[in-house]
User: Fold these one by one.
Assistant:
Number 1:
Amino acid sequence: MQRRNRLSRSRDFDAVYRHGRSVSTRFLVLYWFPRDEAEGDARLGLAVPKGTGGAVVRNRVKRQLREAWRAQLDDVRAGHDYVLIARPGLAEAAEARGFEWLRERVAEVLAKARAR
């Protein structure tokens, strides 16, 4: 995922949290919000709280979530901003069950978002 397709400013995260919609599963929460300029690629922001683990664990989870998101880009609406939040327990479950399991969890939360 290229940097231009990532949310990095706190004001962008705040806009998605305040004005967006959300769905959640056991391990992930997804917020989304259509941008004013409906053209362009979708942008993703990741939030992995400290309760998930130390810095090494959080960064590993972020890398894995970015890769899982990249695999689902065909199912993502263009012109939207997304924030994907990892819930506590995700790191341990992903490590125990593997990357394919994590991709399925990301696909699950995206499917719930499309249904709304």
Number 2:
Amino acid sequence: MAFYRPDGAMGTILQERLRELEGQGRPGLADQLAVTWLRYDTSLIGRADGLDPAAFWTLPPAGASWAGGRSMYPASVVKLFYLAAAEAWLQRQLLEESPELRRSLADMIRASSNDATGYVLDLLTGTTSGPDLPPAALAAWMAQRQLVNRWFARLGWPEMEACNLCQKTWGDGPYGRERQFYGPDHANRNRLSTDATARLLHAAMAGAFVSPPASARMRDLLRRPLDPALRAADPENQVDGFLGEGLPVGARLWSKAGWMSQARHDAAYMEVKGHRPFLLVVFSEGRERAQDARLLPQLAAGLLQACALDSAALPVDERAASEQQRPGGLPLQ
């Protein structure tokens, strides 16, 4: 069962927005992306503070998805999960609090540093990169590198079942034992779905992941400035070309983007005056989509319209459709 409550009207709107974007010179778009969209009546920030964790998960938000369970290479979005694991390890005293750990976590999220990510994953798993290993040593090393996967599996989130969180992120690619670990056809690459990513971001924004203080630290690193001058001064701003670019100045944004030659992704929670808060995770894959800097901003802007507090500004289909009615057209996956 999904952690959110599927809303038929939102599903219709999402399908229509994707149809519009596909018709703007993006043939085959529906097969190249996955989307999970959640909408809230009030701010999600700190909503779980003071609640029993089990009670929080009995309050599902309204949402919709397109291929939300499809596993895709997550690029740097996986760093959000390594941040979450680090907070969990600290809570269990499996990691020692230190300025160097905090510096690496900040660089991993704010600047999307691959070097910092490698250091964090080494700390989480007790492994290091290096030359090829013989079979027995490699098997032990590989088992150790599965610690993050095993921990997320114990959470019991069904969205995590097809995910894989065990690889570092690279500029040029893996070498030595890291390349061995990928397998001959890179079959062991990281994999994530937009549903799994949305669940983690939903929990962190609400204060329901690990603890309210841990969630607050995660939120602090995910906060993105929308001021044009600050964005222009930061080559790794993770706003331009991503979901945040579709928001007006004055909005509030928390996000983690991922971008490489075959993928452009973003996971974001957004608050805009006069609109309901919403959370949006979009993964798009293929060389064309990776180079498409307008897709994510346009989708965010289109779904923002559907979050307007003034019902008169909402599309007619949203005001008329019920959760039990799902018009024809592209079926939700």
